[in-house]
Design a protein that fits this description.
Blueprint (H helix, E strand, L loop, with lengths): L1 H22 L3 H13 L3 H22 L4 H18 L6 H37 L2 H8 L1 H13 L3 H11 L5 H8 L3 H24 L2
Helix pairs in contact: 2-3, 3-4, 3-5, 4-5, 5-6, 5-7, 7-10, 8-10, 9-10
């Protein structure tokens, strides 16, 4: 009696095993599929990537930035942009995560350099005009970044690009001349005007703090 029953159940058991085998995807295969879809620009793949790696990358960048939340978040946003732009297919999760750490560390390093350049720009203002409030904002890192970014945001796009090119990207006057189509003398004249304009904007905002 048991024999016929077992024989009748066997196809069902094999069918369940087959379905389970078809559904199961190895981690390596899942990574390869995800990164291929990311490379192809699939929106759902980016959502899946965000769910899987956002918190993990943030924790990694917190360590890299030595606990500075604002720097970690800025670097994280840049990391996500670089992943979208440069991702390629990876065959293992370990290889993909190693690549992500390199991208994230480079983003954090670049963000740190930009922060240093912001500080250098305001220090230059402080030295040029020796204003007590301006010197104070140089010494207050959070206020420094907020005030300068707000002032730069209020500039015309071309003027902002010129200031950031000179003081954040460290372009020479000759390089800026080539990029803008202005003469070197015109670039220097506009930079002088913009420095004065920024100084007044910064001081006005400091008076309102």
């Amino acid at each position: 009696m048991a024999g016929p029953i077992l024989n009748s159940l066997l196809p069902l058991q094999l069918s369940e095993v087959k379905r389970a085998t078809e559904v199961f995807i190895s981690p390596a295969t899942a990574t390869a599929l995800l990164t291929r879809r990311l490379r192809n620009g699939e929106e759902t793949a980016f959502r899946e990537f965000h769910d899987l790696y956002f918190d993990r990358l943030y924790r990694f960048l917190l360590v890299v930035s030595r606990g500075k939340d604002d720097e970690a978040r800025e670097a994280l946003q840049e990391t996500l942009l670089r992943v979208a732009r440069y991702v390629r297919q990876f065959e293992t999760e370990e290889a993909f995560w190693s690549w992500l750490k390199v991208v994230a560390r480079n983003a954090a390093r670049d963000a740190g350099r930009k922060q240093t350049r912001y500080s250098a720009l305001l220090r230059r203002f402080a030295v040029l005009w020796q204003h007590q409030s301006l010197q104070a904002v140089v010494e207050e890192e959070g206020c420094l970044r907020a005030v300068l970014e707000e002032c730069l945001e209020e500039l015309d796009p071309e003027d902002r690009a010129l200031m950031e090119g000179k003081y954040l990207e460290e372009d020479t006057v000759k390089e800026l001349s080539s990029k803008t189509g202005l003469t070197c003398k015109a670039v220097e004249s506009r930079l002088l005007r913009l420095r004065r304009q920024l100084r007044e904007q910064i001081l006005n905002k400091l008076r309102g703090l």
